[in-house]
Structures are given as structure tokens and as C-alpha cells.
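TA notes. Do not distribute before section.
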Amino acid sequence: MKKSFPLLTIAALGLAGCSVADQAPDANDDTEASVTIMTHDSFNVPEELVTAFEEETGYSVTTTSPGDAGAVLNQLILQKDNPTVDGVYGIDNYSAETLLAEDMLTPHDADLGSADQFTVASDTEGHLAPIDHGQVCVNMDNEWFEAEGLATPETLEDLTDPAYEGLFVTTDPTTSSPGLAFLVATIAATDDWQTYWHDLLDNGAKVAGGWSDAYYSDFTSAGDGDYPLVLSYSSSPSAEEGRTSSILGTCTQQVEYAGVLADAANPDGAKAFIEFLLSSDFQETLPTEMFMYPVLEEVELPEEWSQYAELAEDPIAVDEAEVAENRDAWLDDWTALYENHSS
């Protein structure tokens, strides 16, 4: 998620645990003591935590970002035979199976603890470590619906109801990570997803190029737009202090992973960085820095998250192997459908 919401002030935190120090470089080793991590463009971590990691392990950290999760996947595959990074963070569950099939990763060897519940089912050798999670959901402007006296929608099907004509803005699945998650959710949850999308577009749904445009330009609550329903995240209402809420019947799970490149120049440094990402101190920053939920159950959420950032107990289930097999074809079919509808 883009780090565009108002953030809380973060106090200086120390790096917890000693496991990362066990992988510190040998002072007599000629190998350069640096580690390079490819991330999506929403990665953010307090500087004091990075400094603590560098001081404890002896590695200097460089991050590079080609764009969102989809761009990260594409860039890694392009570099398959000659990687320029040691590790990656930000591969989501809609890209995980595709990356695993490329056989580019080596086991991370990190102790996942309570994060184990978020592992990729097919990843039996531990190539991808879950770092954070959330849900992509339709958000609604509570004040708008109350003022209009209109019952709020509850399901994906409701978005095609004439009662909500011209009220919903989503994002392009070919350019937007939440847009892709929403497309996959409609494929998983409807009998005929193309008919569903015809009905959705006929009902006046707008397709924005990206999340920021949809949320800050088109959404009535956060922008000056005309759409009181917007595709966003289950965490988004935590920044709106009750003015918005998630429609839980539309939510689908999103998990972000980190991995170590098999041909990395510094795989030990990448493994140490993954253990840093799984430290309680880093996990505590996820809600305020990246608006994602920690994968460690023992990490407490900020008060406003506990109050407003509700997760669906039964999100729309997605077969991630099926996504990997069909994603390109689905996107091609969606593009043809959308262009035909727009012409």
C-alpha cells in the first residue's frame, strides 16, 4: 500500500534479538560487507532501525525499487541469469507461485515463529518468508451513505445493483496491485467473471489507473470526488477515524514475502535482513510505515487499528497456483473486455 496516509510519530527502537548478528561478515573476509535488497516502491523503514541492523551485523544496506509488486516480479525474472540484488521483499501472494516456479531462490533459514501461518503452501523448503499481510477490500464513505439514507452494499454482487449505479471506483488490474487482487477475487467469487465485469461497468463503475488516483481524487471521503465506494485496503479506515469502513464481504487476503536469491553475491546478508524484517521491532512499525499488519501475532496493533482496521474473518479465498497459471490470460481478457466496453 502506498504510504500516503497521515503517519504516527515513531519513537527510536532498538533491534531485538541476536540471530542476525550470528550472520555478521568476517572482518578478514574479502567479500564486501554490503547487502542489496529489491523492494516494492512502498517499502519504508525508520532510519534508526536500519542503523541498528547495520551496526549489529556489519552489513551496509542498499534498497532498490522498480515499482509495485508486479514490477518487482518482472525485474527479478529479467535478472534471472545475472541478479543485481541479494534479496527481495514485496513479492505478494499473487506473484509468489510465479517466482517459485522460476527456481531463483534459496532457503531463507529464518525462524518464522507465529508467522508460519502465512507461508505459501507449496513452498515446502522455505524459499519465501512472510513479512506482512492485509486485505484488499472495497471501502465506503459512511457519512455519505448516512446522509443519502442509502443502505450500504455488502457483497461483490451488490456493486452491480442499480441502487449503486455510478458509486464505485476500482483500479486497473494491469497497473495496480489492489486492482489485480480485486480482479482475482471476482474470478474466484462469481460464476462468470466476465459477465460480472460487464454488469459492473454497465452500472457505472470507474476504473482508475492507480490506488492514489482512486482514493485521493475520486473517493468522496478522502478526496473531492464523486464515488463513495473505492477499492482500497482493510487498513485504510484506521486513517479516517470512523468516516470510512471496509465492506468485509468484498475482502481478499494479501501477504507480502521476502526471499534470498540463489545466485546472490551476499546470500548471508540477505538472510540476516530477512531475520531483521521478522524482528518484533520492525514488525511494530508496519502499521504506521506501510499500513500493513504484522505477521507476528504477539505484536500489538495501534489503538486506531484495533478500533477501525477490521479484517474479514472469511475473506474471499483464492487459489494462488491457479493465479500463477492464468494471470496473464486473465489480464489479457480483462483488457479486451474493458477496451470493448469503453469503445
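Switch to the second chain here.
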Amino acid sequence: GLIMPADQIIFRPFDPEEDFPRLLNLRLAVEAADQEGTDTSAEALRAQLASPGHDPARDRLVAVVAAEPDLLAGYHLVWLPPAEQTAHMNVVVHPAWRRQGLGSTLLAQALERSRQLGAEKVNIYANQAHPAAGAFLRKHGFQAGGAYTEMRAAGDQRLPPTVWPYGYQVRTYAEVQDLATLTQAMNESYADLPGHHQVSQEQMAEWLPMFDPDGLFLLFSEKNRPVGISRVEISAERSAKNGVSTGYIDSPGIYSPHRRLDLYRALLLTGMKWLQSQGAALIELESWGDKQEVLRSYFDLGFHIQRQVITYQRQLE
């Protein structure tokens, strides 16, 4: 590709005040070109900047066009969550400045920052709709891991019976009412899937008021051990966006020794039926890192993919 004149681009640390509107503009330009469905609002950016353990002034670098200081040609961010070994990275290049080596420079700088932070490995996402992004990451030593998938189904379809394998039963959090059980289920059900973080009881206690206890389903084995979870709700935000009552399913999770397709299916059906009973016209589901065969079993229940992003990982030497 073209090598850009070095004096056209200045790399400098992100300034949380001055660069905020510039970064918003860059995110808008990228979303307009890539159509990935990314939330480009100021609120979303503020929330991202406030991630625990993230220091925007040190963990972000911007590439500024020398002739137009208000124009960002690209940026990188690195985020190492507290007490974790894997850093999350993002490298973004303005559509007008692509294929000129800028991405490679920003990526190298982000890897360097990850090393400074003491990370053992790094995670970065690439959208399935843009094969060039994945090819770029593989060229730089990354390997594809799990996927983040957004799916959607009609809310008014006739659903098959829910069949629970012998010995398993589901109870709502309204019945269970035990924070330790909920935290255990949340942590164990998604353990080792890419894109999940461990949560403390304190964090769960903070989130609990935002959950609907009747739509929070816990799966128990015959020994009465929590082995799965599925959180569903009628989402005000998604309903407003879609113009119809929209149910949301935070992907069903199952504790690794119990993972089997019939349990995933029964847990998903439980949530879908509850959302139907609440009048959902649409049902949207988010999955982080589920195996392909799990996602395929969801297609049988009427879900189709809206958007899929692949996690790429690389060890740091």
C-alpha cells in the first residue's frame, strides 16, 4: 500500500476533554462507512472511557492529521480490566486513511502499551462483514477465537414444547432470592467463554435492581446445584429503537460439565415463552463466545444473525 508521509500524521496521547468531540466524529465516520450497528452516541463513548481500570489519557493514542488538528485519522485503545491478564484492544482507522499502513502502526503501539500494562495476552474484535479486518489481524499473529453474535427472532411464532432432560429444573430468581447462588451461576455458566468477566457479589447486588426477577431463570441439577442461567427482559431501549415491544435475552449460559444442546435449547425456550407472555413482538439475543453448534440450535427456534464479530487473540512475548 501507499506509505504516507510521516509529517502528515502526528501520534499523541488522547486528551479526554479536547479530543472527545473529535473521537465522536471519527466513530460516526467509521460507522457510516462500515454499517456495523455500533452505538456512536456520546453516552456510549463516556461509558467506555469510564471502564474500570482504564486510563484514557495513557491507554489511548490518537493519530491526528497535521494539516487539520481537529481531524482524527485513527486511534487505538487498550483496556486491562482489574485483576485480569488479558488486555482488550481496539484499533480504528478513518475510512479516508485506510490501506496506508496507519493500522499497522497503531496496532504496534497498542501492543506496546499492553506490554507496559503487564498483560499476558490481548483480545481484539473484527466484524465478520469485513474480511479484510480478520486478514489484517492474522497477518499480525492473531488467532480467531470465539464470536460475539446478535440474533433476532419473531415474537409471535408458535414454539415447540420445552423438554427438560431428567433431573434438571428451572426456577426464577423471584423464587430463589439468593445473591450467592446467582453470582455463582453467573460466573460458572460463562466461565472460559471469550468476552466474559468474573463478577463479584457486590457487582451483582448493584445490577440486581435493573433485572426483572421473574425473567431471570436459574437452572438446577438434581443435586440442587446451580448449573445454568438465562436473563431475559422486555427492553425499553430496544423497544423504542425497533418501534415494537422487544424482548431481550442475555445468552443462556451453562456450567461447563453440564453443557449440552438440549439444555441450551430448553433454557432458551423458557426465556422465549416468558417474553411471549409479556407481549414481545420481537426477540433479540446476544451471545458471547458460544460454540457454533449452540448458535445453530438457536436457528431452529427461528433466530437469524443480525451481526457477528469474531474475537482474535494473541500472546504477548
